């Protein structure tokens, strides 16, 4: 799920662009709530989409493969169409308006919408576009950052992607986990607390001994609702915190996150 707000009040700084993105306006007032000496963690739980992999880049690539004649503005329009459909339908499922459907089903629906918008009716091409969500590039620091953190903590991936999609994107991006969990196991989507409970159950530890890492403030709020500790890592495609958010840690990248945890 991708929530669109990016304006957090006063106090922003402009950071360099990545992967061809426009320069990022990032809030500089992110509030940390826990002294490092008080942060005792037994396992680290990671969001995947947007936090460890560049989801929009993978979908853009799929759209360009669908119709190579599309210019960049049109690709961005179609990407927005895809994202809006996924956001809307996940919200309808969370609200009980629609029965649970896996991310595979929602991705296929989004792919059909995009294909219809450009006049492509080839079922094979639509199916290939739907699978673009499994071919997402990792951020430059992802693989090394996970390897470094895995030397100290059990790592758990926790994603709204289906089991099958999560397997594919983990393999494509080179993500290595001690455990990878899909929201499909809870038959709902984050930020439903039932999804975070999956990580608590698997770890065998109380929620306050788990650290949830995400580039999305909405995701961290969901984890907080169950008692998990929280760490915001900034990404160009994330959902930044607002002035009312208080997360335990903040870092500009995974190396910075590992540095902070080294002093915990």
TrEMBL record:
Keyword tags: Hydrolase
Gene3D superfamilies per record: 1.10.150.750, HAD superfamily/HAD-like (3.40.50.1000)
GO molecular function: hydrolase activity, acting on acid halide bonds, in C-halide compounds
One Pfam family here: Hydrolase
PANTHER family, A to Z: HALOACID DEHALOGENASE, TYPE II (AFU_ORTHOLOGUE AFUA_2G07750)-RELATED, HYDROLASE, HALOACID DELAHOGENASE-RELATED
Protein name: 2-haloalkanoic acid dehalogenase
Organism whose genome encodes this protein: Streptomyces avermitilis (strain ATCC 31267 / DSM 46492 / JCM 5070 / NBRC 14893 / NCIMB 12804 / NRRL 8165 / MA-4680)
């Amino acid at each position: 799920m991708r929530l669109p707000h990016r304006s957090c009040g006063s106090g922003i700084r402009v950071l360099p662009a990545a992967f061809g993105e426009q320069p990022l306006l990032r809030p500089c007032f992110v509030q940390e709530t826990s002294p490092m000496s008080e942060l005792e963690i037994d396992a680290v739980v990671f969001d995947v989409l947007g936090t460890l992999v560049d989801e929009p880049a993978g979908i853009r690539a799929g759209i360009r493969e669908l119709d190579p004649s599309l210019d960049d503005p049109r690709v961005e329009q179609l990407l927005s169409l895809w994202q809006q459909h996924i956001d809307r339908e996940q919200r309808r499922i969370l609200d009980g308006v629609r029965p649970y459907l896996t991310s595979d089903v929602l991705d296929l629906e989004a792919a059909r919408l995009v294909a219809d918008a450009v006049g492509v009716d080839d079922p094979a091409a639509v199916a290939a576009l739907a699978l673009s969500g499994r071919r997402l590039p990792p951020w430059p620091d992802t693989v090394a950052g996970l390897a470094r953190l895995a030397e100290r903590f059990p790592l758990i991936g926790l994603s709204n992607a289906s089991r099958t999609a999560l397997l594919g994107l983990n393999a494509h991006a080179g993500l290595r986990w001690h455990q990878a969990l899909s929201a499909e196991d809870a038959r709902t989507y984050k930020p439903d607390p039932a999804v975070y409970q999956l990580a608590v159950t698997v770890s065998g530890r109380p929620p306050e001994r788990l650290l949830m890492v995400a580039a999305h403030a909405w995701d961290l709020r969901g984890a907080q609702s169950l008692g998990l500790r929280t760490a915001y890592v900034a990404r160009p495609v994330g959902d930044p915190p607002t002035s009312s958010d208080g997360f335990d840690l903040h870092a500009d990248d995974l190396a910075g996150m590992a540095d902070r945890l080294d002093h915990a």
